Amino acid sequence: MTKAMTMTGTKIVTIEEYVAASAGAELAEVFGAIARAGRQIERKIRLAGLSDLYGAYGAVNVQGEQQQKLDVFANDLLTEELRGVACVAAIVSEEDEAPVVFGHADAAFVVVFDPLDGSSNIDVNVNVGTIFSVVKMEGEVVASVMKPGREQVAAGYVLYGPSAVMVLTTGAGVAAFTLGEDERFVLTAEGLRMPKQGPYYSANEANVASWPAVYREYLQMLLGGGLGGRRYGARYIGSLVADFHRTLLKGGVFLYPPTEKALKGKLRLLYEASPLAMIAEQAGGAAVDGAGRILEVQAEGIHERTPLVIGSRCEVAALQKAVVAALSATMEEE
Ligand code: FDP
User: Fold this and answer.
1) Which of 94, 256, 261, 305 has most ligand 1 atoms within 8 Å of CB, for mutation?
2) C-beta of 204 in contact with ligand 1 (< 6 A)
3) Ligand 1 in contact with 44 (CB < 6 A)?
4) Beta partners for residue 247, in sequence order
5) C-alpha to C-alpha distance for 58 and 69, rounded to whole angstroms
6) CA-to-CA distance for 205 and 98, rounded, in angstroms?
7) CA of 2 to the centre of ligand 1 (A)
8) 224 lines ligand 1 (CB under 6 A)
9) How far is the CA of 119 from the centre of ligand 1 (A)?
10) CA distances from 276 to 83, 245, 262, 286, 309 (A)
């Protein structure tokens, strides 16, 4: 990883400046809007206990999940900030059943996002995040966002933790920006690389009994030193952005396999798995839905779910190999 300049260094680079230099002025405006929303969301989360912003909003979203007050706040903020950007044609959000179309003529992009991921952690003051993906507007909005993730123009997330960090890629490596006291996200690392193999696995092990056998065996293999003799430790926050951020920096694997109740897993393809997969690959890591690369999956709906295994190349490749072998053994039996 290349350490970028810090607030104490001589040169400070903001997100807008970085994206303008690496990917052009229009995309810089999109990131500027997300950064402004991220800054306000961070502040609301920090002060939520003082302003009665914990707890349920009283409605259920399209996923059938109880919306939290901060989910609604974050969704409204991102929507309104992005509405103000002329090159954004529409947004697709976890919290809205259908795309919100802005009516900007000849707009180049659609932004897809989960405004506040991990929201069951909000009330207990544990890290949450915003995940987003930028795709080209080509024809209809829905068709534009349902293309395989390899066609994303850019992707990123904001992690609201002890510090607020935005990690992003525009297809030329991964950079991280930290929210400073002057309310700007400034470049703090670029050229981030995920270790080839890591020290941790990250999964909700309460579900193990309902995972397919191949995932159970994979976990046993990790625990038994079957991957180069490494003894893995367990880490699970239950907030995807935070679990992914640790995996990006330290290496290892995060997995949310299919379960008996949720055959396609729990996580969403377009605004959770795909953007994080783009970041993982840009950092030298990998992401699969079992047998296949996440970035090749053709979506069938905007709120589609997918199993997700993401992290260091070594751990992800081992899982993928095991799933492919299990599938071909099943096909031979049939
Ligand atoms: P949450 O339900 O709190 O919003 O996709 C949502 C998500 O959190 C992810 O952030 C997290 O990785 C996962 O669900 C946690 O699911 P489990 O509670 O089933 O472990």
Assistant:
1) 256
2) yes
3) no
4) none
5) 8
6) 33
7) 31
8) no
9) 8
10) 24, 10, 21, 10, 11
pLDDT tens for each residue of 57-95: 666 766 667 677 888 999 999 999 999 999 999 999 999
Give me the torsion for CA of 169, 324, 253, 239, rounded to 10°.
Answer: 80
Beta bridge partners of 189: 3, 176
Residues linked to residue 169 through DSSP beta bridges, in sequence order: 155, 174
**Cα–Cα separations (whole angstroms), residue 167 to 160, 244, 261:** 12, 11, 33
CA 104 to ligand 1 center in whole angstroms: 34
Tokens linked to 89: 């044609």
Give the chain's length.
334
205 lines ligand 1 (CB under 6 A): no
272 CA: nearest ligand 1 atom: 5
Q: Which atom of ligand 1 is nearest to the CA of 65?
A: 2
What does the longest C-alpha to C-alpha distance in the chain come to? 66
**CA-239 nearest atom, ligand 1:** 10
**What Cα–Cα distance (Å) separates residue 112 from each residue in 208, 237, 269?**
31, 24, 11
Structure tokens at 118: 């991990």
Which whole number is the average pLDDT over 288-307?
97
Task: Decide if 15 contacts 178 (C-beta within 8 A).
Answer: no
Look up residue 127 and give its DSSP letter. -
**Global pTM?**
0.94
